[in-house]
Each structure stands twice: as structure tokens, then as C-alpha cells.
Amino acid sequence: MEDRKRVYHLTELKPRRRDLRRKSTNAEKLLWERLRNNKLGVKFRRQFSVMGYVVDFYCPQYRLIIELKGGVHKTTSSKKYDDYRRKYLESFWMTIVEFWNAEIEQDMEKVISSIKNHLSPGPSPKFWRGERKG
User: Do the Cβ atoms of 40 and 116 come closer than 8 Å?
Assistant: First the structure.
């Protein structure tokens, strides 16, 4: 049997994920209320890890990451880090959608509409992994 390296929801990041959930921003709490319990027709996970990175929200069915950004993301060093992180996560065939905290707090319906647009039918994860039917 092939020994594959686990990349999702790493055990060693569990305390960090738990801490991030406890210290959620107001925007994260507001969006989570709209995403949790399959309210958009799909499962979302909160504070999900991919390798060493913890993402705010993740929909496994569509390989969709939703990231919320606050003021700290406006610095030059943060922008470089965010760009690197984005490219790395996209290398796992994931789509990343980012929203500013203010967008969540001021126009939730627009944010939800944008998320729904990314949940439209498309190639399945099996297709992305190179698996074929039959």
C-alpha cells in the first residue's frame, strides 16, 4: 500500500485551529452564521488546515477557501506573505476567495451572492485528481 503524506487538517495544528475559533473576529462570526449547517447547500468547515496554513473557511466539495482580511493585511510584508500563501494553496487545486471584514459587516448579501457564484457546478474533485469514471 502506498504511504501518502497527510496534508489536510494536520493533528499538530489542532490547538492553533481551536484557538483561532475561540478568538474569531466579528466578521468571522457573522459569516460563519451564514455558512454553518449547510445553509448554502454545501458543507463548510471553519479554521481548516492545509499543510502548515490555517484557512478561515473551507468547502471540500468545491475545494473553495474563503479568507477574511482585516487591517493587518494592508502592510507590504503581509501582502507578500498573502501572495505566497495564495499561490501555495492554489497549487492544491483550490480556489481562494477573499473578503475584507468591512465587506462582511456592511454588505453580507453581496458577499453571500459572491460565494454562491463559486458554488456552481463544475469539474468534480475526482476530475481534478486525474481520476476517471468507469
Answer: yes
Interval 87-120: pLDDT, tens:
999 988 889 999 999 999 999 999 999 999 999 7
Cβ atoms of residues 95 and 72 within 8 Å:
no
Q: Render 12-27 in DSSP notation, one character per residue.
A: GGHHHHHHHHHT--HH
Torsion angle, CA of 21/18/60/44, rounded to 10 degrees? -30
For residues 62-89, give the mean pLDDT.
84
Alpha-carbon distance of 125 to 66, in angstroms, equals: 18
Closest by alpha carbon to 57, among 31, 93, 76? 31
Query: Which distant-in-sequence residues (6+ apart) come within 8 Å of 64 by Cβ?
Result: 58, 94, 95, 97, 115, 118, 119
User: Tell me, what amino acid is at 70?
Assistant: G
